[in-house]
Amino acid sequence: MAGHGRSPITRKHGWFAGEDQLLQWRITRTDEDITDWTLEFRMGPEPGATEVLVLPVFVFDTIKKLARCDVAAADTDSIPGNVVYYYEMIRTDVGNEQVLAYGPAYLGARVV
Predict the structure, then answer these.
(1) pLDDT on residue 29
(2) Which residues in 1-112 belong to E strands, given as ranges?
(3) What letter does residue 29 receive in the DSSP assignment?
(4) CATH code for residues 5-107
(5) Is residue 1 over pLDDT 80?
(6) How do the domains of the chain map onto residue ranges?
(7) What residues contact residue 22 under an 8 Å CB cut-off, 6+ apart?
(8) What is the pLDDT of residues 26-47, one digit of tens each?
(9) What is the pLDDT of residue 30?
(10) What gap in Å lies between CA 104 and CA 32, rounded to an integer?
(11) Nearest 10 degrees: Cα torsion 10, 39, 70, 30
């Protein structure tokens, strides 16, 4: 997924409630060193609504400017699947708060 601007998480990403998932972004449109950036993933039913999921995002490759969010199965166990949510991947450093990626996030339902 791109790391600056609209970047939907669609059905083709294969993200299902109650399973582990790795979400990854490339931080684009910046020449800054992102080594010490603090990032967060937030997901809710729509923009401006209360979040149903908030997780840390980690920079794991400063040269390629790659960041990742490790979603554990337990993180989405209680979240209804087969729903399109809205997400934002945000830089949360004081004085530098910025939405880096956002868009719809499809969370599939598992057969149980």
Answers:
(1) 76
(2) 5-6, 21-26, 39-44, 53-61, 66-71, 83-91, 98-107
(3) S
(4) 2.60.40
(5) no
(6) 5-107
(7) 68, 69, 70, 71
(8) 998 788 899 999 999 999 999 9
(9) 83
(10) 27
(11) 60
